């Protein structure tokens, strides 16, 4: 018996957050202010995502938490434990088995279904922030659809680097209306924002929630002569040999040795279990 | 049929424009017509209400009374009562505003090319090559070397910043330019060069402009007509040379005689 209310937050708070989520779903890409609560973790560790997850979870749900695609990093492990303790929900590392997936910086490689919800942790929800510091002004710009400034950022990229060098948190336009920051996912994941599952974005410190309903049109911004490009390391995964997944570069020693592995650990595991082998995978059983 | 050509109607008609700051007068009962291709100077000492007037005209401040009618496709539209989106759109298409301090009118952390291109992107330009070509063209027209296009304004001198601000404002081909002390804070030789440039651009593009300044030399060079303000009221108007050479109002006489002769 724990002394926690289900999923840590009290019922009135969850109700308030659910209202913000519903409003966000009704106006895709619009940042809905909400009364973010203090959570037992520091800002920047996913306080927004945790609150959205807490308000979305039911006792029958199965939760998966990933950080940079991995199930076994500190942030993912501690949030998963948090909900195991406070909500006693089932947890899993398998994408297909989860009903709610809380993520930081990645969209799982495996396509999500209509029965799944993806919850993002968002550090800075305002895509215009670094060019326009005034919140009053950015809200006005969203209201009046004045988005020329967003292209100034992309212009600066090309002027300085010869190409659009923004590689993560790549701005998108939702349903031809709101420009949205997809949270710091790699731009490799941007095309996957048009998916079957519900996507919820929670920014705890900035007190904003926004959402993408299933099958919402999401277009990455670009120039006519510099179209949007998906980028990934031009390698195959060293463990599972995947040539289509997003890869992490891992430094092996101080002599320049390195390997590339899938950032989505569950995807990599599933491929290895299916018998795929990468160039650097050891002999015998990959998983005990 | 009435002839709707631009020439037979003023570009801007101001009627009874009034702005109070609480009990104090900002400006009161200001009215004038500005014709296409005309440059009007507003002079007066600090606190005379000229900047308040300019901000009311440009839609940065909401006046308490009066109308500002702008000729939009042959129709005089009151920009005071028009919707905010429409007014902001005007602010990035037909209107331009040159601030006294270039830092107020520029994005200091964005390259010169990006600063000039912003207005183009704000009106829907989405072709990088075209945006860059126009930016480069304008940067060179305001006498900034083309190879500085990727430098930030923080790396520019005061005079260059001011010229960059002018390029950024003129790139979309506005019809009316508001200028608030465009030469303030620049040394005299840089001022002369800027004035020369402005005079050339105004003539070449057929711009209408309203210039607020306390520097009589600036209006002598640029303005066709002059409006002298004191304590929020217009005390004298007329052709520039007429007002400066034969001032009628006591305050204008004081103003003209206060200029140091070198």
What does this structure look like?
- The complex is a heterodimer of chains A (288) and B (262).
- Chain A has helices at 11-26, 47-56, 74-86, 135-143, 148-161, 265-273, and strands at 32-33, 62-67, 90-91, 100-104, 117-121, 172-174, 178-180, 198-203, 208-212, 218-220, 247-251, 258-262.
- In chain A, 46% of the residues are buried.
- Chain A is of the alpha/beta class and 288 residues long.
- The model of chain A has no long low-confidence stretch (mean pLDDT 94).
- Chain A is globular and about 55 Å long.
- Chain A has 2 domains: 11-220, Rossmann fold (3-Layer(aba) Sandwich), CATH 3.40.50.11310; 232-279, no CATH class.
- Chain B has 262 residues and is an alpha/beta fold.
- Chain B folds into 2 domains: 8-94 and 175-256, Rossmann fold; 106-173.
- Chain B has 10 helices and 10 strands.
- Chain B has helices at residues 50-57, 84-92, 102-105, 112-122, 128-141, 158-170, 188-205, 216-222, 240-245, 250-257; strands at 12-21, 24-34, 39-43, 65-72, 75-78, 95-98, 176-180, 208-213, 225-230, 233-239.
- In chain B, the strands form 2 sheets. Chain B has a 6-stranded mixed beta sheet, sandwiched between helices.
- In chain B, strand 7, helix 7 and strand 8 (208-213) form a beta-alpha-beta unit.
- Chain B starts with 11 loop residues before the first strand and ends in a 5-residue tail after the last helix.
- The relative contact order of chain B is 0.16.
How does the SSE layout of this entry go?
The complex is a heterodimer of chains A (288) and B (262).
Chain A: H1 11-26, E1 32-33, H2 47-56, E2 62-67, H3 74-86, E3 90-91, E4 100-104, E5 117-121, H4 135-143, H5 148-161, E6 172-174, E7 178-180, E8 198-203, E9 208-212, E10 218-220, E11 247-251, E12 258-262, H6 265-273
Parallel strand pairs in A: 2-3, 2-4, 4-5, 5-8
Antiparallel strand pairs in A: 1-9, 6-7, 6-10, 8-9, 11-12
Chain B: E1 12-21, E2 24-34, E3 39-43, H1 50-57, E4 65-72, E5 75-78, H2 84-92, E6 95-98, H3 102-105, H4 112-122, H5 128-141, H6 158-170, E7 176-180, H7 188-205, E8 208-213, H8 216-222, E9 225-230, E10 233-239, H9 240-245, H10 250-257
Parallel strand pairs in B: 3-8, 3-9, 6-7, 7-8
Antiparallel strand pairs in B: 1-2, 1-4, 4-5, 9-10
GO biological process, one term (chain A): organic phosphonate catabolic process
Family (chain A): Belongs to the PhnJ family.
Pfam families (chain A): PhnJ (PF06007)
């Amino acid at each position: 018996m724990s002394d926690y209310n289900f999923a840590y937050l009290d019922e009135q708070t969850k109700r308030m957050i659910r209202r913000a989520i519903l409003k966000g779903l009704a106006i895709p890409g619009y940042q809905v202010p909400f009364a973010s609560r203090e959570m037992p973790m520091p800002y920047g560790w996913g306080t927004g995502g945790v609150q959205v997850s807490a308000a979305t979870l039911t006792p029958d749900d199965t939760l998966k938490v990933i950080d940079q695609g991995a199930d076994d990093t500190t942030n993912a492990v501690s949030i998963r434990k948090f909900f195991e303790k406070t909500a006693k929900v089932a947890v899993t590392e398998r994408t297909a088995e989860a009903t709610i997936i809380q993520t930081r910086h990645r969209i799982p490689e495996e396509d999500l279904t209509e029965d799944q919800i993806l919850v993002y942790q968002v550090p800075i929800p305002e895509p215009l922030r670094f060019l326009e510091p005034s919140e009053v002004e950015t809200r006005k710009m969203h209201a009046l659809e004045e988005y020329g400034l967003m292209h100034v950022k992309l212009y600066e990229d090309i002027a300085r680097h010869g190409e659009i060098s923004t590689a993560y948190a790549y701005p998108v336009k939702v349903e031809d209306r709101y420009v949205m920051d997809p949270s710091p996912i790699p731009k490799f994941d941007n095309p996957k924002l048009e998916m079957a599952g519900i996507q919820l974005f929670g920014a705890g410190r900035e007190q904003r929630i926004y959402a993408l309903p299933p099958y919402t049109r999401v277009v990455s911004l670009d120039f006519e002569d510099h179209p949007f490009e998906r980028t990934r390391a031009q390698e195959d995964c060293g463990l599972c040999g995947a040539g289509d997944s997003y890869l992490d570069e891992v430094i092996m020693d101080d002599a320049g040795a390195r390997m590339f592995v899938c950032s989505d650990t569950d995807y990599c595991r599933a491929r290895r279990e299916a018998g795929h082998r990468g160039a650097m995978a050891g002999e015998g059983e990959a998983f005990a | 049929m009435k002839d709707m050509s631009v020439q037979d109607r003023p570009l801007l008609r101001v009627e009874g424009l009034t702005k109070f700051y609480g009990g104090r007068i900002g400006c009161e009962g200001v009215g004038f017509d500005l014709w296409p291709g005309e440059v009007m100077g507003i002079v007066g000492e600090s606190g005379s209400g000229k900047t308040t007037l300019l901000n009311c005209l440009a839609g940065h401040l909401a006046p308490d009374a009066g109308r500002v009618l702008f000729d939009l496709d042959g129709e005089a539209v009151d920009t005071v009562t028009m919707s905010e989106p429409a007014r902001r759109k005007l602010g990035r298409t037909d209107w331009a505003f040159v601030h006294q301090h270039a830092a107020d009118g520029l994005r200091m952390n964005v390259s010169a090319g990006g600063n000039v291109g912003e207005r183009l992107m704000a009106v829907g330009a989405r072709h990088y090559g075209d945006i860059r070509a126009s930016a480069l063209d304008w940067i060179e027209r305001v006498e900034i070397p083309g190879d500085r296009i990727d430098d930030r304004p923080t790396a520019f001198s005061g005079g260059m910043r001011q010229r960059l601000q002018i390029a950024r404002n003129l790139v979309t081909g506005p019809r009316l330019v508001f200028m608030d002390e465009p030469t303030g804070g620049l040394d005299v030789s840089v001022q002369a060069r800027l004035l020369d440039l402005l005079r050339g651009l105004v003539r070449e593009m057929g711009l209408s402009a309203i210039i607020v300044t306390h520097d009589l030399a600036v209006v002598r060079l640029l303005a066709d007509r002059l409006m002298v303000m004191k304590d929020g009221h217009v005390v004298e108007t007329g052709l520039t040379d007429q007002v400066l050479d034969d001032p009628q109002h006591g305050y204008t006489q004081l103003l003209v005689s206060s200029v140091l002769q070198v």
